[in-house]
Specification:
The complex is a heterodimer of chains A (412) and B (144). Chain A has 14 helices and 17 strands. Chain A is α/β, with parallel strands linked by helices and 412 residues long. Chain A has a seven-stranded mixed beta sheet with strand order 4-10-9-8-7-5-6, sandwiched between helices. Chain A folds into two domains: 12-43 and 303-407, Aspartate Aminotransferase, domain 1; 47-300, Aspartate Aminotransferase, domain 2 (3-Layer(aba) Sandwich). Classes of the chains: A alpha/beta (412), B mainly alpha (144). The interface between A and B is medium-sized, with 14 and 15 residues.
């Protein structure tokens, strides 16, 4: 049975009790946290998991004969299995623990350094975060491969027709985010992956912004690589994952050398450990990995479908209310988007609005959101970005609308 | 006639800001002060004169007039314009030496302390640094 139906009334009041930080005041006002696309807040369940690990289970993993080390190892590997199950990976060894999305992307980029040539082409979407642009630029500089850009439309969607034209037998790699961090657009990655595979290219999907809102089935998507960060999914910072198909992970060389990633070491030659340890040199973020698993449990207990339905409701409500403000323009108007609203008010710098909202206790992001190419496309210096999560309320959106109106009054 | 020192001006600014009881009034006043900012000439509004470390753009230029530094500036954000206007009011028309020696704790006293953090994206710290760099450059020029 699939628990697809959202709660009849999503019990946001009881959910909010799980997040101690939501009780805080900022500048004397109750905190309204709308910077969820930057990082999510953490529920007590995850916070307690971290405390409990250090109080009861802390030991280094995979190497001690003693019981405590074994217990810690079991917890860590159980977390890996939880993540495997959540993303529906075929095997637990296809889940590599990393320090986060950026680390995962760099690991894969490094892996292709010796296999790309000057004839090869690498496609990256115009909607990417800098962390999914720069590592590929570096890779292309090293290998001489060409970096080509899949353009975007004014609605903030990818131009798929142009994408088809860019694909050729020279295309070796394609990088697209599942959801755009600056605009919230959900990209049709299943289609993108299918087309890339038809020319024999591998695809990496940056799922950092998607995973807090939906469950990617990596086998159904047929992604070669899928990467995400725990901290955007109610988990701790400094831990994330790389999913890679076994065949790819076997082909790629290790990223860093060190303990744990070896099978045998002599000064003449080292043989590497099997997956996933080949990519996990050194002592990992043990506690972070375990807490990542706990965060996934937390999200699943509420149900990501229920979360998505409630966030959609918030998105629609906020879109409607914000658009009532004259001169307000929303960037990224795809019908298929997560609860992110990037906007500007005519004649006002986003920084000014962000500063005044902060004085009212409302946390938003302002600036280019590490996606300068998108800002260049719209010819703007940046936007104000309000990103909603399932613990936000319509009353908080009312406070935002009121805040923007107040700021507008002060600034015009 | 008694010369008006940087300290005198800073005290004036602090007194003016003390009249307000809440942040809204303080910010409204700052926005108002931004309107009196001595604007930089268009030809100096170049990338070279941009202050790095600001989320909004801030252009700053300085001339040495009768051995005193005269600052002009502009910004594309209104609050930033207010901040730079306050700084220029305190530092402009002073000798390079006085600018180099000047303290900046009045920023704290007018309730803008949060803007002083070096990690804050508005670049107030970078603005002060740039004002002082101009003063140092002119001081070197004068001592030759």
């Amino acid at each position: 049975m699939n628990a697809a139906k959202p709660h009849i009334a999503f019990d946001v009041d009881s959910i909010r009790k799980d997040f101690p930080i939501l009780q805080r005041t900022i500048n004397g006002q109750p905190l309204v946290y709308f910077d969820n696309a930057a990082t999510s807040q953490k529920p007590t369940q995850v916070i307690n998991c971290i405390v409990e690990f250090y109080e009861n289970y802390n030991a280094n993993i995979h190497r001690g004969v003693h019981s405590l080390s074994q217990e810690a190892t079991d917890l860590y590997e159980k977390a890996r299995q939880k993540i495997q199950k959540h993303f529906n990976a075929a095997d637990a060894h296809e889940i590599i623990f990393t320090s986060g999305t950026t680390h995962s992307i760099n690991l894969v980029a490094h892996g292709f350094e010796n296999s790309l040539t000057e004839e090869d082409e690498v496609l990256v979407s115009a909607l990417e975060h800098h962390s999914n642009i720069v590592p590929w630029q570096m890779l292309c500089e090293k290998t001489g491969a060409q970096l080509k850009v899949i353009p975007m439309t004014p609605e903030g969607e990818l131009d798929l027709e142009h994408y088809s034209e860019l694909l050729s037998e020279n295309t070796k790699l394609v990088f697209v985010n599942h959801v755009s961090n600056a605009l919230g657009t959900i990209n049709p990655i299943e289609k993108i992956i299918k087309q890339a595979h038809q020319v024999g290219a591998a695809v990496l999907i940056d799922g950092a912004q998607a995973c807090p809102h939906l469950i990617p089935d990596v086998q159904k998507l047929n992604a070669d690589f899928y990467v995400a960060s725990a901290h955007k999914m109610c988990g701790p910072t400094g831990v994330g994952m790389l999913y890679g198909k076994t065949e790819w992970l076997k082909k790629l060389p290790p990223y860093q050398g060190g303990g744990e990633m070896i099978s045998e070491v002599t000064f003449e030659k080292t043989t590497y450990a099997d997956l996933p340890h080949k990519f996990e040199a050194g002592t990992p973020n043990v506690c972070g990995g375990i807490a990542f698993g706990k965060a996934i449990d937390y999200l699943n207990a509420i149900g990501l479908e229920a979360i998505a339905a409630y966030e959609d409701e918030l998105l629609n409500y906020a879109t409607e209310k914000l658009l009532e403000i004259s001169g307000l323009k929303i960037y990224g108007t795809s019908k298929n988007k997560t609860a992110v609203i990037s906007f500007n008010v005519e004649g006002i710098h986003p920084y000014d609005i962000g500063t005044l909202l902060d004085k009212m206790g409302i946390a938003v992001r302002t600036g280019h959101h590490c996606a300068q190419p998108i800002m260049d496309f719209y010819k703007i210096p940046g936007t104000v970005r309000a990103s909603f999560s399932f613990y936000n309320t319509k009353a908080e959106i009312d406070a935002l609308v009121q805040g923007v109106n107040k700021a507008k009054m002060m600034l015009s | 006639m008694k010369t008006v020192t940087i300290n005198d001006i800073q005290n004036d600014i602090v007194e003016e800001f003390e009249m307000f009881d809440d942040w809204m009034q303080r910010y409204e006043y700052m926005i108002e002060l931004g309107k009196s900012l001595p604007l930089i000439k268009p030809e100096f509004k170049t990338d070279d004169n941009l202050i790095k470390g600001c989320q909004s753009k801030v252009w700053l230029h300085a001339d040495l007039v009768n051995d005193k530094v005269v600052f002009t500036a502009d910004s594309d954000a209104i609050i930033t314009k207010g901040i730079i206007a306050i700084l220029i009011r305190a530092f402009s028309n002073q000798t390079p030496q006085h600018i180099i020696e000047a303290k900046t704790d009045f920023i704290d006293a007018i309730g803008l302390k949060e803007h002083l953090s070096p990690t804050r994206a508005n670049g107030l710290v970078s603005m002060i640094k740039q004002l002082k760099i101009y003063a140092i450059a002119f001081q070197t020029q004068l001592s030759k």
